Amino acid sequence: LAIAEAYLKQGKYYRAADAYTLASLYKPNNPLAYAGKSHALFAAGEYMSSALFLSRALEIFPEYARFKIDLVAMVGDRDKIESRIADVKQWLERNDAAELEFLLGYIYYQLGREEQAKEAIEAAYKKMPEAPAVISLKKAIEEFQQPPVTNPQ
Q1: What pLDDT sits at residue 77?
Q2: Which of 25, 38, 52, 148 has the most CB atoms within 10 Å of its CB?
Q3: Which residues of 36-54 are buried (b: 16+ CB within 10 A; e: fewer)?
Q4: Alpha carbon 70 to chain centroid distance?
């Protein structure tokens, strides 16, 4: 995993994805290997594959949806992330895939863009209401959006 993270920060996204694949072979129930591969593939522009591996991570460990990840630090480039988001939006205009809405919901959630995350995950949920990964991410986003409970006294 450490080697994969180093490749990711260096911008060697396919090498990072391969290293995460090796990690998943050694520990097939480790959600971090699948989530890391998802991040690497997102950075490489492989959005459907990124969504698939994110789904696997959430199916193994649904609570992963609540983890906050510093994607900018992980990928090492905010402009790269913004460029990929714009690219995903263009893909969505062409094919309206629920998997891309799911992925975009996750990315927005990790970037702290609450409203955009909620909008994207709702669109994914309408198309895939039974998908465990979508359900987990939807719950995490909804809980993140809840205002803090204040003591009425």
Answers
A1: 84
A2: 38
A3: bbbbbbbbbebbebbbbbb
A4: 11
Tens of pLDDT along 75-121? 878 999 999 999 999 999 999 899 999 999 999 999 999 999 999 99
Residues making up the chain, counted from first to last: 153
Q: Give the list of residues 6+ apart from residue 87 with CB closer than 8 angstroms, or none.
A: 45, 47
Distance from chain centroid for Cα 69: 9
| Crossing angle of the two packed helices 47-60 and 78-95, in degrees rounded to 10 | 100
Say what the pTM is.
0.91
Q: Specify which of 20-24, 74-78, 144-148 reaches the highest per-range mean pLDDT.
A: 20-24
From 53, 55, 42, select the one nearest 134 (Cα to Cα): 55
